[in-house]
Specification:
heterodimer, A: mainly alpha, 3 helical TM bundles of succinate and fumarate reductases, 64% helix, B: 259 residues, alpha+beta, Ubiquitin-like (UB roll), Fumarate Reductase Iron-sulfur Protein, Chain B, domain 2, 2 domains, two-stranded antiparallel ribbon
Protein backbone atom coordinates (compact mmCIF):
# COMPACT_ATOMS: atom_id res chain seq x y z
CA UNK A 1 0.00 0.00 0.00
CA UNK A 2 1.50 3.26 -1.09
CA UNK A 3 1.41 5.67 1.78
CA UNK A 4 1.06 9.39 1.34
CA UNK A 5 2.02 10.04 4.94
CA UNK A 6 5.51 11.51 5.20
CA UNK A 7 7.81 9.17 7.05
CA UNK A 8 8.79 11.02 10.18
CA UNK A 9 12.18 9.34 10.08
CA UNK A 10 12.99 11.04 6.79
CA UNK A 11 14.60 14.45 7.13
CA UNK A 12 12.37 17.18 5.76
CA UNK A 13 14.05 19.92 3.73
CA UNK A 14 14.02 23.28 5.49
CA UNK A 15 13.67 24.96 2.12
CA UNK A 16 13.28 24.10 -1.53
CA UNK A 17 15.67 25.40 -4.10
CA UNK A 18 14.27 27.60 -6.80
CA UNK A 19 15.58 27.90 -10.34
CA UNK A 20 19.01 29.48 -10.55
CA UNK A 21 18.91 33.19 -11.31
CA UNK A 22 21.50 34.78 -13.63
CA UNK A 23 25.01 35.15 -12.25
CA UNK A 24 25.42 37.73 -9.55
CA UNK A 25 21.91 37.06 -8.23
CA UNK A 26 22.43 33.30 -7.83
CA UNK A 27 25.14 34.06 -5.25
CA UNK A 28 22.41 35.58 -3.09
CA UNK A 29 20.22 32.49 -3.53
CA UNK A 30 22.55 30.41 -1.41
CA UNK A 31 23.39 30.92 2.24
CA UNK A 32 27.12 30.49 1.54
CA UNK A 33 26.77 33.27 -1.04
CA UNK A 34 24.95 35.47 1.45
CA UNK A 35 27.73 34.97 3.95
CA UNK A 36 30.07 36.07 1.22
CA UNK A 37 28.01 39.23 0.68
CA UNK A 38 28.00 39.74 4.46
CA UNK A 39 31.81 39.54 4.51
CA UNK A 40 32.29 41.93 1.58
CA UNK A 41 29.87 44.50 3.01
CA UNK A 42 31.52 43.95 6.40
CA UNK A 43 34.87 44.99 4.95
CA UNK A 44 33.25 48.11 3.53
CA UNK A 45 31.59 48.94 6.83
CA UNK A 46 34.80 48.41 8.82
CA UNK A 47 36.45 50.74 6.30
CA UNK A 48 33.77 53.32 7.02
CA UNK A 49 34.18 52.93 10.79
CA UNK A 50 37.94 53.45 10.48
CA UNK A 51 37.56 56.49 8.21
CA UNK A 52 34.90 57.95 10.51
CA UNK A 53 37.18 57.46 13.50
CA UNK A 54 40.13 59.02 11.69
CA UNK A 55 37.93 62.02 10.85
CA UNK A 56 36.86 62.30 14.48
CA UNK A 57 40.48 62.61 15.58
CA UNK A 58 40.20 66.18 14.24
CA UNK A 59 38.40 66.86 17.54
CA UNK A 60 41.87 66.82 19.12
CA UNK A 61 43.08 69.39 16.60
CA UNK A 62 40.84 72.47 16.84
CA UNK A 63 37.14 73.37 16.39
CA UNK A 64 38.01 75.15 13.17
CA UNK A 65 39.79 72.03 11.86
CA UNK A 66 36.65 69.97 12.52
CA UNK A 67 34.59 72.55 10.67
CA UNK A 68 37.04 72.50 7.77
CA UNK A 69 37.02 68.68 7.65
CA UNK A 70 33.21 68.59 7.57
CA UNK A 71 33.20 71.15 4.78
CA UNK A 72 35.77 69.07 2.86
CA UNK A 73 33.41 66.09 2.95
CA UNK A 74 30.60 68.23 1.52
CA UNK A 75 32.66 69.52 -1.37
CA UNK A 76 34.38 66.19 -2.05
CA UNK A 77 34.96 65.69 -5.76
CA UNK A 78 35.05 69.44 -6.48
CA UNK A 79 35.17 70.76 -9.17
CA UNK A 80 34.01 67.69 -11.11
CA UNK A 81 31.02 67.00 -8.88
CA UNK A 82 28.66 69.65 -7.49
CA UNK A 83 28.58 70.17 -3.71
CA UNK A 84 27.10 67.20 -1.71
CA UNK A 85 27.14 64.82 -4.71
CA UNK A 86 30.18 62.76 -3.74
CA UNK A 87 28.99 62.69 -0.14
CA UNK A 88 25.59 61.39 -1.18
CA UNK A 89 27.13 58.77 -3.47
CA UNK A 90 29.16 57.54 -0.50
CA UNK A 91 26.08 57.65 1.71
CA UNK A 92 24.03 55.60 -0.73
CA UNK A 93 26.87 53.10 -0.90
CA UNK A 94 26.85 52.89 2.90
CA UNK A 95 23.09 52.47 3.06
CA UNK A 96 23.27 49.70 0.46
CA UNK A 97 26.04 47.95 2.40
CA UNK A 98 24.10 48.19 5.65
CA UNK A 99 20.97 46.91 3.95
CA UNK A 100 22.70 43.92 2.38
CA UNK A 101 24.62 43.13 5.58
CA UNK A 102 21.45 43.08 7.66
CA UNK A 103 19.37 41.25 5.05
CA UNK A 104 22.05 38.54 4.73
CA UNK A 105 22.34 38.20 8.49
CA UNK A 106 18.62 38.01 9.08
CA UNK A 107 17.84 35.57 6.29
CA UNK A 108 20.66 33.15 7.14
CA UNK A 109 19.69 33.28 10.80
CA UNK A 110 16.15 32.32 9.81
CA UNK A 111 17.50 29.29 7.92
CA UNK A 112 19.51 28.26 10.96
CA UNK A 113 16.44 28.63 13.10
CA UNK A 114 14.50 26.35 10.79
CA UNK A 115 17.38 23.86 10.72
CA UNK A 116 17.37 23.74 14.51
CA UNK A 117 13.60 23.79 15.00
CA UNK A 118 12.19 20.83 16.83
CA UNK A 119 15.58 20.54 18.46
CA UNK A 120 14.54 22.55 21.49
CA UNK A 121 15.24 25.87 19.85
CA UNK A 122 14.61 28.54 22.43
CA UNK A 123 15.22 32.29 22.08
CA UNK A 124 17.61 32.07 19.18
CA UNK A 125 19.87 29.40 20.64
CA UNK A 126 19.62 25.77 19.79
CA UNK A 127 19.29 24.08 23.12
CA UNK A 128 19.88 20.70 24.61
CA UNK A 129 17.35 20.15 27.39
CA UNK A 130 20.12 18.45 29.35
CA UNK A 131 22.28 21.54 29.00
CA UNK A 132 25.29 21.99 26.78
CA UNK A 133 28.82 23.22 27.02
CA UNK A 134 30.50 25.46 24.51
CA UNK A 135 34.03 24.49 23.65
CA UNK A 136 34.92 27.14 21.08
CA UNK A 137 32.07 29.61 20.60
CA UNK A 138 33.04 32.77 22.45
CA UNK A 139 30.98 35.61 23.84
CA UNK A 140 31.43 37.68 20.69
CA UNK A 141 30.37 34.95 18.27
CA UNK A 142 27.28 34.06 20.26
CA UNK A 143 26.11 37.66 20.65
CA UNK A 144 26.44 38.75 17.01
CA UNK A 145 22.67 38.88 16.66
CA UNK A 146 22.40 41.12 19.70
CA UNK A 147 25.37 43.41 19.09
CA UNK A 148 24.17 43.90 15.49
CA UNK A 149 20.73 45.36 16.38
CA UNK A 150 22.31 47.38 19.23
CA UNK A 151 24.62 49.00 16.69
CA UNK A 152 21.70 49.62 14.34
CA UNK A 153 19.56 51.30 17.01
CA UNK A 154 22.55 53.33 18.11
CA UNK A 155 23.12 54.37 14.51
CA UNK A 156 19.60 55.81 14.28
CA UNK A 157 20.19 57.68 17.53
CA UNK A 158 23.59 58.87 16.35
CA UNK A 159 22.16 60.23 13.09
CA UNK A 160 19.25 61.94 14.89
CA UNK A 161 21.76 63.35 17.35
CA UNK A 162 24.54 64.68 15.14
CA UNK A 163 23.37 64.61 11.51
CA UNK A 164 19.70 65.51 11.61
CA UNK A 165 19.81 67.48 14.85
CA UNK A 166 16.44 66.18 16.02
CA UNK A 167 17.41 65.83 19.66
CA UNK A 168 17.06 68.75 22.07
CA UNK A 169 20.21 68.15 24.14
CA UNK A 170 22.61 69.21 21.37
CA UNK A 171 21.11 72.61 20.47
CA UNK A 172 22.10 71.51 16.99
CA UNK A 173 23.91 74.07 14.84
CA UNK A 174 24.51 73.06 11.23
CA UNK A 175 28.16 73.60 10.28
CA UNK A 176 29.49 73.40 13.84
CA UNK A 177 30.33 69.73 14.34
CA UNK A 178 32.70 70.46 17.23
CA UNK A 179 30.00 72.32 19.10
CA UNK A 180 27.39 69.66 18.40
CA UNK A 181 29.66 66.81 19.48
CA UNK A 182 30.81 68.49 22.69
CA UNK A 183 27.27 69.52 23.64
CA UNK A 184 26.01 65.98 22.99
CA UNK A 185 28.83 64.04 24.64
CA UNK A 186 29.01 66.51 27.51
CA UNK A 187 25.72 64.97 28.56
CA UNK A 188 26.57 62.02 30.85
CA UNK A 189 23.72 59.64 29.86
CA UNK A 190 24.47 60.26 26.18
CA UNK A 191 28.19 59.62 26.74
CA UNK A 192 27.34 56.34 28.48
CA UNK A 193 25.14 55.36 25.54
CA UNK A 194 28.01 56.02 23.15
CA UNK A 195 30.35 53.93 25.28
CA UNK A 196 27.92 50.99 25.37
CA UNK A 197 27.30 51.16 21.62
CA UNK A 198 30.99 51.29 20.78
CA UNK A 199 31.78 48.36 23.03
CA UNK A 200 29.05 46.45 21.15
CA UNK A 201 30.63 47.55 17.88
CA UNK A 202 34.08 46.32 18.93
CA UNK A 203 32.67 42.98 20.10
CA UNK A 204 30.81 42.65 16.81
CA UNK A 205 33.97 43.38 14.82
CA UNK A 206 36.05 40.99 16.93
CA UNK A 207 34.03 38.05 15.65
CA UNK A 208 33.04 39.61 12.34
CA UNK A 209 36.57 40.28 11.13
CA UNK A 210 37.71 36.72 11.89
CA UNK A 211 34.52 35.31 10.40
CA UNK A 212 35.10 37.35 7.27
CA UNK A 213 38.32 35.49 6.49
CA UNK A 214 36.50 32.16 6.72
CA UNK A 215 33.47 33.27 4.70
CA UNK A 216 35.62 34.59 1.88
CA UNK A 217 37.87 31.54 1.97
CA UNK A 218 40.93 33.62 2.77
CA UNK A 219 42.90 30.74 4.11
CA UNK A 220 46.55 29.87 4.00
CA UNK A 221 47.92 27.70 6.79
CA UNK A 222 51.01 29.90 6.78
CA UNK A 223 49.08 33.02 7.81
CA UNK A 224 46.08 31.52 9.57
CA UNK A 225 47.37 32.16 13.09
CA UNK A 226 47.44 35.87 12.22
CA UNK A 227 43.71 36.03 11.49
CA UNK A 228 42.56 36.07 15.12
CA UNK A 229 45.22 38.66 15.85
CA UNK A 230 44.10 40.89 13.00
CA UNK A 231 40.49 40.67 14.18
CA UNK A 232 41.44 41.42 17.78
CA UNK A 233 43.74 44.28 16.72
CA UNK A 234 41.07 45.83 14.54
CA UNK A 235 38.48 45.58 17.30
CA UNK A 236 40.97 46.99 19.80
CA UNK A 237 41.91 49.98 17.67
CA UNK A 238 38.25 50.80 17.02
CA UNK A 239 37.38 50.33 20.69
CA UNK A 240 40.12 52.60 22.01
CA UNK A 241 39.69 55.21 19.27
CA UNK A 242 35.93 55.47 19.49
CA UNK A 243 35.74 55.33 23.28
CA UNK A 244 38.23 58.15 23.56
CA UNK A 245 35.67 60.69 22.28
CA UNK A 246 32.91 60.32 24.89
CA UNK A 247 35.35 59.63 27.73
CA UNK A 248 37.69 62.52 26.99
CA UNK A 249 34.75 64.87 26.47
CA UNK A 250 33.48 63.92 29.91
CA UNK A 251 37.01 64.34 31.28
CA UNK A 252 37.15 67.82 29.76
CA UNK A 253 40.03 67.18 27.36
CA UNK A 254 37.69 67.92 24.49
CA UNK A 255 36.19 71.08 25.95
CA UNK A 256 33.08 72.85 24.67
CA UNK A 257 34.56 76.13 25.91
CA UNK A 258 37.43 75.79 23.40
CA UNK A 259 34.94 76.49 20.65
CA UNK A 260 35.50 80.11 19.57
CA UNK A 261 32.20 80.29 17.66
CA UNK A 262 30.00 78.79 20.37
CA UNK A 263 27.96 81.99 20.71
CA UNK A 264 26.71 81.82 17.13
CA UNK A 265 23.64 79.61 17.28
CA UNK A 266 22.58 80.64 13.79
CA UNK A 267 24.15 78.30 11.32
CA UNK A 268 25.14 80.97 8.74
CA UNK A 269 26.70 83.22 11.36
CA UNK A 270 28.49 80.24 12.85
CA UNK A 271 29.92 79.21 9.48
CA UNK A 272 31.02 82.81 8.85
CA UNK A 273 32.79 82.85 12.22
CA UNK A 274 34.73 79.68 11.34
CA UNK A 275 35.53 80.98 7.84
CA UNK A 276 37.05 84.09 9.43
CA UNK A 277 39.22 82.03 11.75
CA UNK A 278 40.39 79.77 8.91
CA UNK A 279 41.10 82.84 6.76
CA UNK A 280 43.24 84.30 9.54
CA UNK A 281 45.16 81.05 9.74
CA UNK A 282 45.80 81.49 6.03
CA UNK A 283 43.83 78.47 4.84
CA UNK B 1 44.37 -7.67 41.18
CA UNK B 2 41.27 -5.74 41.93
CA UNK B 3 39.60 -3.84 39.16
CA UNK B 4 38.63 -0.27 39.90
CA UNK B 5 34.92 0.38 39.56
CA UNK B 6 32.76 3.48 39.80
CA UNK B 7 29.07 4.19 40.36
CA UNK B 8 27.28 6.69 38.17
CA UNK B 9 23.87 8.27 37.78
CA UNK B 10 22.69 8.57 34.19
CA UNK B 11 20.07 10.96 32.84
CA UNK B 12 19.13 9.33 29.55
CA UNK B 13 16.85 10.78 26.88
CA UNK B 14 14.01 8.35 26.13
CA UNK B 15 11.79 8.90 23.13
CA UNK B 16 9.45 6.28 21.68
CA UNK B 17 9.57 7.48 18.09
CA UNK B 18 9.99 10.48 15.77
CA UNK B 19 6.64 12.03 16.76
CA UNK B 20 7.01 11.47 20.50
CA UNK B 21 7.82 14.28 22.92
CA UNK B 22 10.57 12.51 24.77
CA UNK B 23 11.76 12.85 28.36
CA UNK B 24 14.74 12.14 30.58
CA UNK B 25 14.89 9.01 32.70
CA UNK B 26 17.32 8.36 35.48
CA UNK B 27 19.28 5.13 35.76
CA UNK B 28 21.87 4.02 38.25
CA UNK B 29 24.98 2.52 36.66
CA UNK B 30 26.67 0.57 39.45
CA UNK B 31 30.05 -1.16 39.51
CA UNK B 32 31.25 0.11 36.16
CA UNK B 33 34.85 -0.73 35.37
CA UNK B 34 36.94 2.33 34.63
CA UNK B 35 38.36 0.40 31.68
CA UNK B 36 34.94 0.08 30.06
CA UNK B 37 34.10 2.32 27.14
CA UNK B 38 31.04 4.55 27.34
CA UNK B 39 29.12 2.20 25.06
CA UNK B 40 30.09 -0.87 27.12
CA UNK B 41 28.77 0.96 30.15
CA UNK B 42 25.46 1.53 28.30
CA UNK B 43 25.45 -2.18 27.35
CA UNK B 44 25.63 -3.07 31.03
CA UNK B 45 22.86 -0.64 31.89
CA UNK B 46 20.74 -2.18 29.12
CA UNK B 47 21.39 -5.74 30.34
CA UNK B 48 20.17 -4.76 33.77
CA UNK B 49 17.10 -3.07 32.24
CA UNK B 50 16.30 -6.25 30.34
CA UNK B 51 16.66 -8.28 33.54
CA UNK B 52 14.18 -5.91 35.15
CA UNK B 53 11.85 -6.46 32.19
CA UNK B 54 12.19 -2.87 30.99
CA UNK B 55 12.85 -1.59 27.46
CA UNK B 56 16.57 -1.13 26.89
CA UNK B 57 17.92 2.21 25.70
CA UNK B 58 18.35 2.36 21.93
CA UNK B 59 21.68 3.74 20.82
CA UNK B 60 23.80 3.24 17.76
CA UNK B 61 27.23 1.68 17.52
CA UNK B 62 29.18 -0.49 15.14
CA UNK B 63 32.95 -0.79 14.98
CA UNK B 64 33.61 0.53 18.49
CA UNK B 65 37.10 1.59 17.49
CA UNK B 66 36.40 5.11 16.30
CA UNK B 67 36.39 4.67 12.53
CA UNK B 68 32.82 3.95 11.46
CA UNK B 69 30.99 7.06 12.66
CA UNK B 70 27.94 5.19 13.90
CA UNK B 71 28.03 6.11 17.57
CA UNK B 72 26.50 9.46 18.34
CA UNK B 73 25.90 10.71 21.83
CA UNK B 74 25.71 14.13 23.38
CA UNK B 75 27.37 13.48 26.73
CA UNK B 76 27.08 16.22 29.34
CA UNK B 77 26.33 18.74 26.61
CA UNK B 78 29.36 17.84 24.51
CA UNK B 79 29.26 15.79 21.33
CA UNK B 80 31.16 12.52 21.83
CA UNK B 81 31.88 13.56 25.40
CA UNK B 82 34.54 15.77 26.91
CA UNK B 83 37.67 14.42 25.22
CA UNK B 84 38.97 15.98 22.03
CA UNK B 85 39.42 13.90 18.91
CA UNK B 86 37.51 10.89 20.24
CA UNK B 87 34.29 9.19 19.24
CA UNK B 88 31.90 8.04 21.97
CA UNK B 89 33.17 4.46 21.66
CA UNK B 90 36.70 5.63 22.43
CA UNK B 91 35.58 7.49 25.53
CA UNK B 92 36.51 5.45 28.57
CA UNK B 93 34.85 5.55 31.94
CA UNK B 94 38.13 6.55 33.58
CA UNK B 95 37.32 10.03 32.24
CA UNK B 96 34.56 10.20 34.87
CA UNK B 97 34.74 10.03 38.63
CA UNK B 98 32.76 8.00 41.11
CA UNK B 99 29.32 9.50 41.77
CA UNK B 100 29.19 11.61 38.61
CA UNK B 101 25.88 12.56 37.03
CA UNK B 102 26.00 12.08 33.27
CA UNK B 103 23.40 13.46 30.87
CA UNK B 104 23.05 11.55 27.61
CA UNK B 105 21.13 13.01 24.70
CA UNK B 106 20.80 12.29 21.00
CA UNK B 107 22.16 14.64 18.31
CA UNK B 108 19.73 17.48 17.85
CA UNK B 109 18.89 19.16 14.54
CA UNK B 110 15.71 19.45 12.50
CA UNK B 111 17.25 17.24 9.81
CA UNK B 112 18.34 14.58 12.30
CA UNK B 113 14.95 13.21 13.36
CA UNK B 114 15.12 10.97 16.41
CA UNK B 115 14.28 7.39 15.48
CA UNK B 116 14.18 6.13 19.02
CA UNK B 117 15.83 7.18 22.27
CA UNK B 118 19.41 8.09 21.35
CA UNK B 119 19.36 7.00 17.71
CA UNK B 120 18.85 9.65 15.03
CA UNK B 121 18.48 9.39 11.28
CA UNK B 122 21.43 10.86 9.46
CA UNK B 123 19.88 10.30 6.04
CA UNK B 124 20.31 13.99 5.23
CA UNK B 125 24.08 13.35 5.06
CA UNK B 126 23.44 10.62 2.47
CA UNK B 127 21.53 13.12 0.37
CA UNK B 128 24.52 15.49 0.41
CA UNK B 129 26.83 12.63 -0.58
CA UNK B 130 24.52 11.49 -3.36
CA UNK B 131 24.56 15.01 -4.81
CA UNK B 132 28.24 14.76 -5.70
CA UNK B 133 30.39 12.99 -3.13
CA UNK B 134 32.02 10.71 -5.69
CA UNK B 135 34.33 10.69 -8.69
CA UNK B 136 33.74 9.07 -12.03
CA UNK B 137 36.36 6.46 -12.93
CA UNK B 138 36.49 3.76 -15.53
CA UNK B 139 36.04 0.36 -13.94
CA UNK B 140 37.99 -2.74 -14.86
CA UNK B 141 41.35 -3.94 -13.67
CA UNK B 142 43.08 -1.81 -11.06
CA UNK B 143 45.27 0.88 -12.63
CA UNK B 144 48.99 0.99 -11.88
CA UNK B 145 49.83 2.77 -8.66
CA UNK B 146 51.15 6.32 -8.89
CA UNK B 147 49.95 6.70 -12.45
CA UNK B 148 48.77 10.21 -11.65
CA UNK B 149 51.35 12.37 -9.87
CA UNK B 150 49.90 14.05 -6.77
CA UNK B 151 51.79 16.71 -4.79
CA UNK B 152 52.57 15.46 -1.28
CA UNK B 153 50.86 18.45 0.37
CA UNK B 154 47.67 17.91 -1.63
CA UNK B 155 47.66 14.20 -0.80
CA UNK B 156 48.17 14.92 2.91
CA UNK B 157 45.40 17.46 3.00
CA UNK B 158 43.01 15.24 1.05
CA UNK B 159 43.72 12.45 3.52
CA UNK B 160 42.93 14.79 6.41
CA UNK B 161 39.58 15.58 4.79
CA UNK B 162 38.92 11.93 4.02
CA UNK B 163 39.29 11.14 7.73
CA UNK B 164 35.69 12.36 8.18
CA UNK B 165 33.55 9.45 9.35
CA UNK B 166 30.24 11.27 8.88
CA UNK B 167 29.09 10.83 12.49
CA UNK B 168 27.21 14.13 12.62
CA UNK B 169 28.90 15.53 15.71
CA UNK B 170 29.59 18.77 13.81
CA UNK B 171 25.87 19.34 13.24
CA UNK B 172 25.04 18.33 16.79
CA UNK B 173 27.59 20.73 18.27
CA UNK B 174 26.72 23.61 15.93
CA UNK B 175 24.40 26.23 17.47
CA UNK B 176 23.06 26.77 13.93
CA UNK B 177 22.73 23.08 13.02
CA UNK B 178 25.00 23.71 10.04
CA UNK B 179 26.71 20.83 8.25
CA UNK B 180 29.59 22.86 6.86
CA UNK B 181 32.38 20.77 8.35
CA UNK B 182 30.98 17.47 7.05
CA UNK B 183 30.20 18.85 3.60
CA UNK B 184 33.51 20.66 3.25
CA UNK B 185 35.45 17.50 4.14
CA UNK B 186 33.45 15.43 1.68
CA UNK B 187 33.98 18.00 -1.07
CA UNK B 188 37.63 18.75 -0.42
CA UNK B 189 38.80 15.13 -0.27
CA UNK B 190 38.17 15.13 -4.02
CA UNK B 191 38.63 18.79 -4.92
CA UNK B 192 42.23 18.69 -3.70
CA UNK B 193 43.21 15.75 -5.89
CA UNK B 194 43.69 15.55 -9.68
CA UNK B 195 41.14 12.73 -9.88
CA UNK B 196 38.48 15.07 -8.50
CA UNK B 197 39.04 17.96 -10.90
CA UNK B 198 36.68 16.92 -13.70
CA UNK B 199 33.61 17.20 -11.50
CA UNK B 200 35.01 19.79 -9.11
CA UNK B 201 32.69 22.71 -9.80
CA UNK B 202 29.58 20.62 -10.40
CA UNK B 203 30.24 18.72 -7.19
CA UNK B 204 30.84 21.81 -5.08
CA UNK B 205 27.67 23.52 -6.24
CA UNK B 206 25.46 20.42 -6.00
CA UNK B 207 26.68 19.35 -2.56
CA UNK B 208 26.46 22.81 -1.01
CA UNK B 209 23.02 23.40 -2.50
CA UNK B 210 21.81 20.08 -1.12
CA UNK B 211 23.37 20.83 2.26
CA UNK B 212 21.48 24.11 2.40
CA UNK B 213 18.18 22.33 1.83
CA UNK B 214 18.62 20.49 5.11
CA UNK B 215 21.00 22.36 7.37
CA UNK B 216 21.59 25.76 8.87
CA UNK B 217 24.17 28.40 8.03
CA UNK B 218 27.71 28.62 9.31
CA UNK B 219 28.60 31.51 11.63
CA UNK B 220 32.18 30.39 12.27
CA UNK B 221 31.83 29.58 15.95
CA UNK B 222 34.25 26.69 15.57
CA UNK B 223 32.21 24.32 17.77
CA UNK B 224 32.24 21.65 15.04
CA UNK B 225 36.02 21.36 15.05
CA UNK B 226 36.08 20.96 18.83
CA UNK B 227 33.45 18.21 18.65
CA UNK B 228 34.89 16.36 15.65
CA UNK B 229 36.30 12.95 16.60
CA UNK B 230 38.61 13.18 13.58
CA UNK B 231 39.60 16.81 14.18
CA UNK B 232 38.67 17.92 10.67
CA UNK B 233 40.09 21.42 10.24
CA UNK B 234 38.02 24.59 9.87
CA UNK B 235 40.27 25.36 6.91
CA UNK B 236 38.11 23.05 4.82
CA UNK B 237 35.13 25.30 5.46
CA UNK B 238 37.11 28.25 4.10
CA UNK B 239 38.01 26.16 1.04
CA UNK B 240 34.36 25.26 0.59
CA UNK B 241 33.30 28.91 0.71
CA UNK B 242 35.97 29.84 -1.82
CA UNK B 243 35.17 26.96 -4.18
CA UNK B 244 31.44 27.56 -4.01
CA UNK B 245 31.52 31.15 -5.24
CA UNK B 246 34.10 30.12 -7.85
CA UNK B 247 31.83 27.27 -8.93
CA UNK B 248 28.96 29.67 -9.49
CA UNK B 249 31.11 31.51 -12.03
CA UNK B 250 32.80 28.46 -13.59
CA UNK B 251 29.58 26.48 -14.00
CA UNK B 252 28.03 29.42 -15.81
CA UNK B 253 30.99 29.52 -18.19
CA UNK B 254 30.77 25.77 -18.73
CA UNK B 255 27.03 26.01 -19.37
CA UNK B 256 27.83 28.65 -21.97
CA UNK B 257 29.95 26.14 -23.91
CA UNK B 258 26.90 24.04 -24.71
CA UNK B 259 25.63 24.52 -28.30
Amino acid sequence: MASTMPNLRDPQPIRTRKKDLPFPLNIWQSAVGRKWVMAITGIGLIGFVLAHMAGNFKLYDSPAAVHEYAETLRVLGKPILPKYWALWILRFGLIAMFGLHIAAAYSTKELSRKASDGAGFISGEKSYPGGREYAAANYASRTMRWTGPIIMLYLVFHLADLTWGYLPHTDYVYGDPFGNVTRSLGNLPVAILYVIANVALAVHIFHGAWSMFQSLGVNNPKYNQARRGIAAGLAGVILVGNLSFPILTQAGVIDADDNPCREFVDSDANTECFEDILAKEGK
Amino acid sequence: MSEQTINLTLEVWRQNGPGDGGRFETYEAKDISVDASFLEMLDLVNERLIEEDKTPVTFESDCREGICGTCSLMINGQAHGPNKGQATCQLHMRTFSDGDHITVEPWRAASFPVIKDLAVSRAAFDKIQQAGGYITVSTGSAPDANLIPVPKEAADMAMDAAACIGCGACVAACPNSAAQLFTSAKIQQFNLLPQGQAERWKRTEAMVDTMEEYFGTCTNHGECYEACPKEISLDFIAFLNRDYVKAKIKNRKLAGQKS
